[in-house]
Specification:
- The chain has twelve helices and eleven strands.
- The chain is an alpha/beta fold and 298 residues long.
- The strands form two sheets. Strands 2-1-11-10-9-6-5-4-3 form a nine-stranded parallel sheet. The chain has a two-stranded antiparallel sheet with strand order 7-8.
- Strand 4, helix 4 and strand 5 form a beta-alpha-beta unit.
- Helix 6 packs parallel to helix 7, helix 8 runs parallel beside helix 9 and helix 11 crosses helix 12.
- The longest helix has 17 residues.
- Bound molecules: 3-hydroxy-3-methylglutaryl-coenzyme A and magnesium ion.
- 3-hydroxy-3-methylglutaryl-coenzyme A binds next to helix 4, helix 5 and strand 6.
- This is Hydroxymethylglutaryl-CoA lyase.
């Protein structure tokens, strides 16, 4: 049985734009987020409060957040440490995400820490965020394969997933950062997580479309009962600290499939596609999303 309703966790403004070579002007980012909200998306990741040298594309977080914080949607932000949480709290953010790695190589590249050092860094962040009554998401990257280490064993992913839940995260997002997952692997991981006590209701999925498997993987996750799906408008994105990562699952491709399955998302596909076409013009290159191209005849 498929779920009747799905929450799309829109990551284009964060995961998408963090990977653009050109830095997008702050007012353009704000307009992007406003248009995404207007298209009916209700959870729109806005930016990251990370070190500006590590992700210069999002160095304007302090300027951007106040330009969109009046929107009647959830605007989660990424915070790696106490400093990031301080910055997010100062601006009135209500949802935060920490971001762990299932592999040592990516933990080092992305956070300058071992996997366990990163978890130790998140511990006081999650505790304080929960004290502040924030909703906390725990991202987990490289859940299927890693550019340096190859295929990632399921038990390794389960260990870090449980550690994130034990810290107090409300929700996990399982990242296929380099887009190598296939549906059987997705189902193996979800089943193993359930067996180890992580309920499907706490699990979101975050697929990248490198091998064209993102929608197949999403369908497998839906059939397993997952109702939170990450996607990026126009298929923007990748990851600056994982070279082989290509774009995220495009929100338009996801909405097209869900609409066909009769699953409610509340998203207006016409408005969303127009927004991604507009953003593609701003970036000076066409959207990689098949659905955006089909609907805009580009
Ligand atoms: P570090 O160099 O080890 O930092 O980086 P540190 O803790 O040693 O601190 C060094 C300096 O940075 C200090 O300043 C701190 O104050 C400052 P100094 O005293 O030297 O002047 N600093 C900060 N400044 C502003 N904001 C902060 C902050 N923290 C420290 N939050 C650090 C460690 C975690 C900071 C760094 O590695 C970092 O910022 N990493 C972020 C990388 C990132 O954002 N990656 C992309 C997101 S993950 C992703 O995209 C995957 C995902 O989409 C899912 C998937 O697809 O898999 C989520
Ligand atoms: Mg990603």
């Amino acid at each position: 049985d498929l779920p009747a309703r799905v929450t799309i966790h829109e990551v284009g403004a964060r995961d998408g734009l963090q990977n653009e070579k050109a830095t997008v002007p702050t007012p353009v980012k704000a307009e992007f987020i406003r248009r995404l909200a207007d298209a009916g998306l209700t959870t729109i990741e806005a930016t990251s409060f990370v070190h500006p040298k590590w992700v210069p594309q999002l160095a304007d977080a302090e300027q951007l957040f106040p330009l969109v914080s009046d929107l009647p949607v959830a605007l989660p932000v990424l915070v790696p440490n106490q400093r990031g949480l301080d910055r997010a709290l100062a601006l009135g953010a209500k949802r935060v995400a920490v971001f762990a790695s299932a592999t040592e190589s990516f933990a080092k590249a992305n956070l300058n820490r071992t996997v366990d050092e990163a978890l130790a860094m998140f511990e006081p962040v999650v505790r304080r965020a929960k004290d502040e009554r924030m909703q906390v998401r725990g991202y987990l990257s490289m859940c299927f394969g890693d550019p340096w280490e190859g295929p990632v064993p399921v038990h390794q992913v389960v260990r870090v997933s449980k550690a994130l839940m034990d810290l107090g995260c409300d929700e996990l997002s399982l990242g296929d950062t380099i887009g190598v997952a296939t549906p059987g692997h997705v189902l193996d991981l979800l089943s193993e997580l359930n067996e180890e006590g992580v309920p499907t209701s706490a699990i979101g999925v975050h697929f990248h479309d490198t091998y064209g498997q993102a929608l197949a993987n999403t369908l497998a996750a839906l059939q397993h009962g997952v109702t939170t799906i990450d996607a990026s408008a126009g298929g923007l994105g990748g990851c600056p600290y994982a070279k082989s990562a290509t774009g995220n699952l495009a929100t338009e491709d996801l909405v097209w499939m869900l609409r066909g399955l009769g699953i409610d998302t509340g998203v207006d596909l016409g408005r969303l596609t127009a927004t991604s076409a507009w953003m593609a013009d701003q970036l000076g290159r066409p959207s990689p999303s098949r659905t955006v191209r089909a609907l805009t005849h580009k």
